[in-house]
Amino acid sequence: MRMLLLITALPLCWGASPAAATPRGKKAAAAQAKHAGNRASKGHRIDRYPAVNLVHIKTKERFAFRLYDKRGRANRPVLRRLRHFMRCRRTGRSRPIAWRLARTLYSVGRKYAGRTVYVYSGVRHRRVARLRGSRHIVGHAVDIHVAGVSNRALRDYLRRSYRAIGVGYYPNSYFVHLDVRDRSAFWVDLSGPGRPSRYVSALAYLTRERAHRRSPAGEVKLQPVGPAPTQTVALSKVVAPPPIAVTPQHESAAATTTVVPAPDLAEPVVAAPQLTKAPLVPPSPLGTVDRVRPAGGGWHPPAAQ
């Protein structure tokens, strides 16, 4: 009994765990030590959820947006800071940001790692928003731009990678609209900053954009409708061929040669045909009768019966 207690306490005296004394425990300890050595050899700590750099264009504020903690759980203090960061710049009021919007915004920042995400507009108060049903009022929308990424590429990435979102493309502005909703939506607005909305057909705009990319001259080539017009040449501009020069050895032949003048190439004038009027038929004394032209000429009413 004493010998058994001594053998059990011996690994504890050496600073090892009882599980490490077994073969399976030795393998787990060796794998853990190897993993720790690999991490130490890299010289940096592995961050599964890095922060995304956000900059508000209007307020000039910077925000390190780290949505998840080390264990992958939602970071609630950061969500409260995000609510203040995306407040209405005119009234100073804030609203809770939708979780799906915060998650999508963080995912976009992770997609373009190392690039700053500029926020043009977050929450808007009802007195500031132009549209009564704007999703900016309830904290479900944001206008963003990623540094070094064209708005066209950002638009295509959002439409291709996420579902149940709204994407608004503004070719004459600086940002792309992003919101969360029940069904996906996409629209194109040609208005500039501070101008009234000018919505156009999104399908027609994308079709024209693809044609613009395929055109070698960089312009959209429009095919004319109908046959091409035929080219007319004025007869007065036709030049007659020069006369043939006569050499001395052909003088005798040239003396007897009759020079035929060049034909007149002017367009002939066609006289209009003369229209002759038919003789008027005298009224018949018997009323309405069938008028018959006899072979001998002249008009004679039929004999009374």
Describe the structure.
With 305 residues, this protein is an alpha+beta fold. The protein has a domain at 52-184: Muramoyl-pentapeptide Carboxypeptidase, domain 2 (2-Layer Sandwich), CATH 3.30.1380. It is 28% helix and 12% strand. It contains seven helices and eight strands; from the N terminus they run ααββααββαββββαα. The protein has helices at 2-13, 23-42, 76-85, 99-111, 151-161, 202-214, 251-255; strands at residues 52-56, 62-65, 117-121, 141-146, 165-169, 176-180, 185-189, 199-200. An eight-stranded mixed β-sheet has the order 2-1-3-4-6-5-7-8. The relative contact order is 0.06.
Secondary structure layout plus pairing:
Blueprint: H1 2-13, H2 23-42, E1 52-56, E2 62-65, H3 76-85, H4 99-111, E3 117-121, E4 141-146, H5 151-161, E5 165-169, E6 176-180, E7 185-189, E8 199-200, H6 202-214, H7 251-255
Parallel strand pairs: 1-3, 5-7
Antiparallel strand pairs: 1-2, 3-4, 4-6, 5-6, 7-8
> What percentage of the residues does DSSP assign to strands (E)?
5-15%
Q: Which CATH C-level class of the domain at 52-184 is it?
A: Alpha Beta
- N-to-C SSE string, H for helix and E for strand: HHEEHHEEHEEEEHH
Please give the number of β-strands. Answer: 8
Question: How do the strands of the widest beta sheet line up side by side?
Answer: 2-1-3-4-6-5-7-8
Q: Which architecture of the domain at 52-184 would the CATH scheme give at its second level?
A: 2-Layer Sandwich
Derived from helix and strand composition plus strand pairing, the structural class reads alpha+beta
Instruction: Using the coordinates shown, work out and report the CATH topology of the domain at 52-184.
Output: Muramoyl-pentapeptide Carboxypeptidase, domain 2
Low-confidence stretches: 10-21, 218-239, 246-259, 284-296, 298-305
How many helices? The count is 7
- Give the rounded overall mean pLDDT: 75
Shape assignment: globular
- Amino-to-carboxy terminus distance: 162 Å
Radius of gyration: 47 Å
Helix content: 25-40%
- Report the biggest beta sheet as strand number plus sense, adding barrel if it closes: 8 strands, mixed
